[in-house]
Specification:
Helices cover 40% and strands 15% of the residues. The chain is an alpha/beta fold. The structure holds ligand PBG.
Length: 331
């Protein structure tokens, strides 16, 4: 039956009816807040260092990271995700698996201060290597996949040993989920889940993150390991392979321009799906809001709800704290 028997507007005619038929919910518990923890000289000067392109996001000294984690727990956020900025870098990125490294120290400090908070850690080498690539290099400057696997597995185990609830490899090496799973199991961390950045694209939306984490490649780019934004079928294959290798959850990244893949990965896998609303996506909203072009609160809640509608069970977002406050005000 079509118009005039059918009138779609009937169920939109009051706030009560709209609430009754709302298909998608958004809760603070579904949001993950990324934290940049630094042990560099900058945070010795002041424990919170602003990041130019990301108003409201800071590089944090350990003490400040613990404060942020406590706030995240108070706001009811689902988890925090830690990124480390080490005091020194080297060719192989050995700071990544250092038992006294910045992420390892931060995990222990947050675990002790806020025991109930879920702590995820980003597992990658790019913040720790002098060249800024996500793995060890061949002579010709390309990333050596198989050598890198051991380094990633060591890094993941060191995070688990420090007390991380889940490890999230973001490097895009082939076989890393299996390598990490085997090493975690061998070292007594069979219960530690893996969130694989399964469909991670070589994206220009990571620009502000690289400023924040000081991880811009010294030469070349990441197209030799991250996905081509033109390739959806290949992204789905990556996600299916990661599940086969033992990923407990998979992530699509970036989020805004990749809703088709959030939806496809959700449909084709049976694991929880995360979407990473990345740094450049955050900066765009902040810049447009600061210029008065959009209403920040409305736009952020619309974006996060839309990512949930596309199929994301979990959204990693720099807007997490504000979103949690706004959601609390609404209810
Ligand atoms: C590390 C990593 C990156 C991001 C998350 N983990 C940067 C990159 O791959 O260059 C980007 C996150 C963001 O832009 O918010 N490999």
């Amino acid at each position: 039956m079509a118009f005039p028997q059918t009138r779609m507007r009937r169920l939109r005619s009051s706030a009560g009816l709209r609430g009754l038929v709302r298909e998608t919910d958004l809760r603070a518990g579904q949001l993950v807040l990324p934290l940049f923890v630094s042990s560099g000289a900058d945070v010795v000067q002041a424990p919170r260092q602003p990041i130019g392109a990301m108003p409201g996001v800071e590089r944090l000294a350990l003490s400040a990271a613990v404060e942020e984690a406590r706030l995240a727990a108070e706001l009811g956020l689902g988890a925090v995700m830690l990124f480390g900025i080490p005091a020194a870098k080297d060719e192989h990125g050995s700071g990544a698996w250092d038992e006294e490294g910045v992420v390892q120290l931060a995990v222990r400090a947050i675990r002790a201060a806020v025991p109930e908070l879920v702590i995820l850690t980003d597992v990658c080498l790019c913040e720790y290597t002098t060249h800024g690539h996500c793995g060890a290099l061949h002579e010709d400057g390309s990333v050596d996949n198989d050598t890198t696997l051991d380094l990633l597995a060591r890094t993941a185990v060191s995070h688990a040993r420090a007390g991380a609830d889940m490890v999230a490899p973001s490097d895009m090496m082939d076989g890393r989920v299996r390598a990490i799973r085997e090493e975690l199991d061998a070292e007594g961390f069979a219960e530690t889940p893996i969130l694989a950045y399964a469909a991670k694209f070589a994206s220009a939306f990571y620009g502000p993150f690289r400023e924040a984490a000081d991880s811009t490649p010294a030469f070349g780019d990441r197209r030799g390991y991250q996905l081509d934004p033109a390739n959806g079928r290949e992204a789905l294959r990556e996600a299916l392979l990661d599940v086969e290798e033992g990923a407990d959850m998979v992530m699509v990244k970036p989020a805004l321009a990749y809703g088709d893949l959030i939806s496809a990965v959700k449909r084709e896998t049976n694991v929880p799906v995360a979407a990473y609303n990345v740094s450049g996506e955050y900066s765009m909203v902040k810049a447009a809001a600061a210029a008065g072009h959009v209403d920040e609160r409305a736009v952020v809640l619309e974006i996060l709800t839309s990512l949930r509608r596309a199929g994301a069970d979990v959204v990693v977002t720099y807007h997490a704290k504000d979103a949690a406050r706004w959601l609390a005000e609404q209810s």
